[in-house]
Specification:
Layout (H helix, E strand, L loop, with lengths): L1 H19 L15 H22 L13 E5 L4 E3 L3 E2 L2 E5 L9 E4 L5 E4 L2 E4 L3 E8 L5 E9 L4 E3 L4 E5 L3 E3 L3 E3 L9 E4 L5 E3 L4 E4 L3 E9 L2 E10 L4 E6 L3 E3 L3 E9 L8 E5 L4 E5 L2 E4 L3 E9 L4 E9 L1 H18 L9 H13 L16 H5 L7 E7 L4 H9 L2 H7 L6 E8 L5 E8 L1
Helix pairs in contact: 1-2, 3-6
């Protein structure tokens, strides 16, 4: 009984000692109980109390605190964007397991980058930043360059025509007018026909057609270049130089070089003496001289002088000029008659075949007088060929003594004039005189 009480008191004492150690700052005092089982229980209790004490006095680790944002990155698909395009930023928060990953996104210039209709949009040309800001003030940004993209290229014509060896400058227009980069690039599909330089100068190399492409950014426009062989000379000719009033005539062209592809020709006349009636054709309308001109597209031209004559008017003018010569010689004026005029016409027609005072059949020229009912005691004849005007023929006769003698013969009172033209346009003249 006494021993049992001693054991109980010893156990109580050891618990009190251990309990007193709980508030101790130093290492616990170990009290070993002579009872092994009680001693083991005491050791376990001491270990538990020691661990609790360590937890109360160790510092709080960083892992136990909320993580804050340390950096922000703003990522873009492209740094340069066209005006009007959407900008889609991606914001990356570091560390990835930050407690508060919220942020605000703003633009440094709303005239360049602006949020509207739920999207960030490039609204104006220039440079701006998209800035992301975390609640703790950490920021990150991305720079955006907004440019005005070309939308269209406008050319003056779909096709231009150039003479071989020449050049032309094209000046396409880029739209919109405020396009950031208006630099154009040019390309010829066939440089054996047409070459084009960096400044838009087209050089015509050889006859044919080539496609010219114009590039501005992603925009392309095309135009055709046709190189033609230029006309270097035009020769205009007619069947003859003289045409009678009412006659139809034709003119002929010879283009140099013969293979010139620039066949756009215009025909003009200087007066109303002839009227163009069709392709290379005309009608002689009124007496006078007129110039017919044919002009190529490059300004090269050729011309032909055409004289329209009235044979009856020519005969009347010869009659007037002859009497003028007689007047200057102090002689009386000559008169005419139809039989004498007919005689002169017969002789003018005959000398187109045989130029002589002898008729083509070998008879004397004066037989023509009697055949046409002309009576005479004294008669005379003047003939001429090739003179183009009445003045020319009378002047030629007056310079020939034998012909002049008939014109200023005081014995003559009557005169008939005959003028005809052969198929080559050569004029033949005849004067028939009687007393």
């Amino acid at each position: 009984m006494k021993q049992s009480m001693i054991k109980i008191m010893a156990s109580i004492l050891s618990v009190i000692i251990v309990a007193g150690m709980i508030g101790c700052q130093d290492s616990p005092l170990r009290v070993l109980h002579p009872d092994a089982e009680a001693n083991s229980r005491l050791q376990a209790t001491e270990n538990i109390l020691s661990e609790e004490s360590d937890k109360q006095h160790l510092p709080i680790l960083a892992e136990d605190r909320p993580l804050e944002v340390e950096s922000i990155m703003v990522m873009l698909d492209a740094v340069r964007v066209a005006r009007g395009a959407h900008v889609t930023p991606e914001v990356i928060i570091l560390p990835y397991d930050a407690a508060d990953k919220s942020f605000t996104l703003t633009s440094s210039d709303n005239n360049i980058i602006r949020r509207r209709s739920g999207h960030w949009s490039a609204v104006g040309e220039g440079t701006a930043q998209l800035i992301a800001t975390a609640p703790n003030g950490v920021t990150g940004f991305a720079t955006v360059i907004v440019y005005v993209a070309a939308e269209a290229i406008v050319v003056d014509a779909d096709e231009i025509i150039i003479h071989r060896g020449e050049h032309a400058v094209i000046a396409p227009q880029v739209l919109p007018e405020d396009t950031t980069d208006k630099v154009m690039r040019f390309f010829s599909a066939d440089e054996t026909i047409a070459e084009i330089s960096e400044d838009g100068t087209i050089y015509a190399v050889y006859e044919g057609s080539a496609l010219i492409s114009i590039y501005v950014g992603d925009i392309t426009e095309t135009m055709s270049v046709t190189v033609i062989e230029p006309v270097s000379a035009i020769n205009v000719s007619t069947d003859r130089r003289l045409y009678l009033v009412g006659e139809q005539g034709r003119f002929h062209l010879r283009i140099t070089p013969a293979g010139a592809s620039d066949a756009a020709l215009t025909v003009s006349v200087s007066g109303d003496e002839i009227v163009l009636t069709g392709e290379n054709a005309f009608s002689a309308e009124t007496p006078g001289d007129v110039t017919l001109t044919v002009t190529a597209a490059n300004g090269i031209s050729g011309s032909q002088l055409i004289s329209v004559i009235d044979l009856e008017a020519f005969a009347q003018e010869v009659f007037r000029l002859t009497n003028a010569e007689r007047e200057m010689a102090g002689l009386h004026q000559l008169t005419t008659s139809d039989p004498l005029t007919q005689t002169a016409l017969v002789r003018a027609e005959e000398i187109t075949e045989y130029f002589s005072h002898t008729r083509p059949d070998g008879r004397d020229c004066f037989t023509a007088f009697t055949e046409n009912g002309v009576e005479y005691l004294t008669a005379g004849e003047n003939l001429a060929a090739g003179h183009r005007t009445p003045y020319d023929v009378v002047y030629g006769w007056m310079r020939s003594p034998s012909h002049r003698e008939n014109i200023v013969n005081a014995a003559f009172n009557n005169m008939g004039i005959g003028v005809v033209m052969d198929e080559d346009g050569r004029l033949y003249w005849a004067q028939a005189f009687t007393d």
